[in-house]
Amino acid sequence: MATPYRLPCCCYALVTVLVLFFSVDATEGAIREYQFDVQMTNVTRLCSSKSIVTVNGQFPGPTVFAREGDFVVIRVVNHVPYNMSIHWHGIRQLRSGWADGPAYITQCPIQSGQSYVYKFTITGQRGTLWWHAHISWLRATVYGPIVILPKPGVPYPFPAPYDEVPVLFGEWWTADTEAVISQALQTGGGPNVSDAFTINGLPGPLYNCSAKDTFKLKVKPGKTYMLRIINAALNDELFFSIAGHPLTVVDVDAVYIKPITVETIIITPGQTTNVLLTTKPSYPGATYYMLAAPYSTARPGTFDNTTVAGILEYEDPTSSPPPHAAFDKNLPALKPTLPQINDTSFVANYTARLRSLATAEYPADVPREVHRRFFFTVGLGTHPCAVNGTCQGPTNSSRFAASVNNVSFVLPTTALLQSHFAGKSRGVYSSNFPAAPLVPFNYTGTPPNNTNVSNGTKLVVLPYGTSVELVMQGTSILGAESHPLHLHGFNFFVVGQGFGNFDPAKDPAKYNLVDPVERNTVGVPAAGWVAIRFRADNPGVWFMHCHLEVHVSWGLKMAWLVLDGDRPNEKLLPPPSDLPKC
């Protein structure tokens, strides 16, 4: 066991953190205050400049540092012409749903010239999470890490690293991303794919005109580094590997796991993974590429099929340090070998190896008794074109759509949580979201003749404390794809997964109820299913959606309404006075 000894700051070269620390009683944690100024910033990538939305002029944005038990206060001021909201991805937000961030779910957006203060306590969490814009496609450039250290004096359950470094994957469009999604929604077709992937905002040497925009990680021999990896890409799951350096996975979605050592990880949009990287015992006289490339079973042309590279560079103890941006091009540069782009077998084997620690200190508190069972189909479908219209969907007479149980979610014009709290839900949402498909079919086989989906703003209502089992079944109506699903307000246990159609008579017998991995975002396998369990112990309205933004835009989302419990600590806190209005 090893104790992290500081709140890291200077080692994160890509960010400047503006934070004020106010000490309070140690048993209550500290108060961490941040100022987020949302502003337009000129950025050049791929030899092309454009003005993008940023926080504090940084791309990626600043790191939020805190410890377990801290109270975090973040004032967001919107200086751009777009509406804005920010989601603190993976933070439980116990009783503080007003701070969760998804626009029109827990709050109305922060309008141009307005501000909102997000306040929340970090309870029972430590590890890597992240924050991002949660409206339209603005999270393409509005995102950054959340680093949560254990309480003072509490060790990591693995050897303390020499240093810790955030590694954020993103996507870069030369075009304006708001124009990209706007055009796709108008035509009913798929959006234009990104022009590059990025590591910490940099596309790297494998793209044209980008050698100078390369993320370089300089390391010392014989040291262990912790990489805090975040997939902030909009639409792509990614393989990641570093040549000649195995990675030991110790944490996913801010939950410790039984360590596993691998050559390559797979990470979906929305997920985080902490890995330990142990450098070679002596100066190797070589540099090493770190590569990330997409995993996809979709048809070519519908995703960015490129590779982003960073460089792992050793300090040479026999020579004076080179300039900060220098890189010895005379050294051999070794590249890792990534899995094939559609290697679903690799993905399934990797995810099956992830297990909770399940110790006395970090138990796997899996619900054994289930109060409510749900079966959700997730996948693509169609909407008909307007009368006499021409669309660019699967056919000229249809538009792309996406749905959960054949319901394509429609965002309301006022926030669901505000409507619920005020008792004014009529005309805003209904509470009749189907617990299972109304018309069963062969989900991973021959698709039905009618691929149209319905529209609606429907919620599932749960009493406080309900134990839930949810099976999410991928469909192959318009092709089998993996769908990363993110649940706000909760962690859940991934108790089972498989390929083909879920069999309720046989598959539950294979569930892992001892040490299943605990997450907030999980990939529903292509042409397969995943089963999760969680306790509805957090009152409020909680969004659940695909973390591929294109599928979110098409409607692959829904929401849960968890009612207040009987005790005072089981009730939603009242809304803050500065809550934005629609």
TrEMBL record:
This is Laccase. Its EC number is 1.10.3.2. Lignin degradation and detoxification of lignin-derived products. It comes from the Eukaryota. Pfam families: Cu-oxidase, Cu-oxidase_2, Cu-oxidase_3. Gene3D superfamilies: Cupredoxins - blue copper proteins. NCBIfam families: laccase (TIGR03389). The keyword Glycoprotein applies. Its main location: secreted. Binds 4 Cu cations per monomer.
